[in-house]
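Chapter summary example.
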Amino acid sequence: MHQGIAFSFGHIRIHHAGRCAVVAFHGEIDIAAVVDVSCGLDAVTAIPRRPVVLDLTGVEFIDACGLGLLCRARRRVAARGGRLVLVCDRPRIWRLLRITGLDGAFTVTATLAEALDQAARPTGR
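The structure predicted for these 125 residues follows.
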């Protein structure tokens, strides 16, 4: 994938901002959506040392399967020496991350610009 080219896989749109891959989710991220987007998200998270931003600003609902998808992406990016940042501006989604304790597992920002800045920082490896 090259900068300027965008790909859509069901509930996600993938594009690039510099070196950073941006995956913008939309709609409901439930078991059906997870099946729909897993291959696309796996392709993005397979590249070593890649900064990845998961943009949840278009998400209306996320269930346990969706949270599991986010955790899988975080593990895959970390295992390859990259950095993953979430964008979350919806109080309902933010509250779910906090209640489940995942707010401490992810770097979470309110805007895409903040997320891109965070993702571009060195990982320390």
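To summarize the output: The CA atoms of residues 45 and 77 lie 5 Å apart.
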